[in-house]
Amino acid sequence: MASNLDFSPPEVPEPTFLENLLRYGLFLGAIFQLICVLAIIIPIPKSYEVETEPSEPRSAEVTRKTKATVPSANKRPKKETKKKR
């Protein structure tokens, strides 16, 4: 009975090129996702900000933009009614 047991490892086929490509692509995608999540969680101080003073102060007239009157979507032009005879 003991002579009938086969303890050799099962035969596993060699992975193909596409299977390897898929496996490494999934690893790279997982690493990219971890980096993105860590970038959201860990705040990075912005020490490179440089405060610059405007060389020429702008007047209120330049910064103020003119707004064109836009009819609101709720207001529809009144339809002309036909005159009764």
UniProtKB/TrEMBL annotation:
Keywords linked to the UniProt accession = Membrane, Transmembrane, Transmembrane helix
Q: Name one Pfam family in it.
A: UPF0239
List the GO cellular component terms.
membrane
Q: Where is the protein situated, by its record's location annotation?
A: Membrane
The answer on whether this UniProt entry bears the keyword Signal reads no
Q: Which domain of life is it from?
A: Eukaryota
* Region span, Disordered: 49-85
- Per the record, the major location class is membrane
**Compositional bias (Basic and acidic residues):** 55-64
Q: How does it sit in the bilayer?
A: Single-pass membrane protein
Q: Which residues cross the membrane?
A: 24-44
Question: From start to end residue, where is composition biased (Basic residues)?
Answer: 75-85
Identify its protein family.
Belongs to the UPF0239 family.
What PANTHER family does UniProt report for this protein, alphabetically?
MANNOSIDASE, BETA A, LYSOSOMAL-LIKE, MANBAL PROTEIN, PROTEIN MANBAL
Q: What is this protein called?
A: Protein MANBAL
